[in-house]
Amino acid sequence: MSRPPSILIADDHPVFRSGLRGVLERDGFTVVGEAADGDAALAAALRLNPQVVVMDLSMPGRPTREVAAELLARLPGSALVILTMHEDPRYLREFLRLGVHGYLLKKSTGGELAQAIRTALAGGRYVDPALAGTLLGGMLAPAPAAGAAPAEEPSAREREVGGLLALGHTNQEIAERLALSVRTVESHRAALMRKLGLATRAELVRWALAQGLLDRAP
What we know:
Elements: E1 6-10, H1 14-26, E2 30-35, H2 38-48, E3 52-56, H3 64-74, E4 79-84, H4 89-98, E5 102-105, H5 110-121, E6 126-127, H6 129-139, H7 156-166, H8 171-178, H9 182-196, H10 201-211, H11 213-216
Parallel strand pairs: 1-2, 1-3, 3-4, 4-5, 5-6
Helix pairs in contact: 2-3, 7-9, 7-10, 8-9
């Protein structure tokens, strides 16, 4: 008789972890460990080598995106399923590009989580049905009409300014570093945010991480 699939749970809320453990064990899985933040999750995964890591998107410490990327790189044999309260499709697209095997809303049922885990174990990908429509809609969006202007892409200078802003530099510091006026830096920042449809610094940081700008920063 084969052994039940091994699961590691990573979430910063003990009550939620306890409830999740109960749901998973009732569905025939074996929970081999728990973690309350990203670094602890990575350490536990490397030590326990679970078949699946179920990880909350929003935990204290290192950004979950960084932890997920490292986990996928160092444990290619483990599947990663993200749990989140965020319904913004940008998070979904970001983590699917990263290579996660499942993306599920926390309001989903235990049966949906079990299905996501089994799909991941079988080598597939599972997206929460509540979000799958937004993903499919993007794939089926009509192509631009012939001769239509393409969507604006940030310039190299705007990307450079965005990366420095994401690292926490002020407009004045960026102006001095790039030999620009503060007004020009502000103009590049405004253009970047407009082109990307961003509204907050947190969104800018997530974009910079997804683009690898922070990895290349000195």
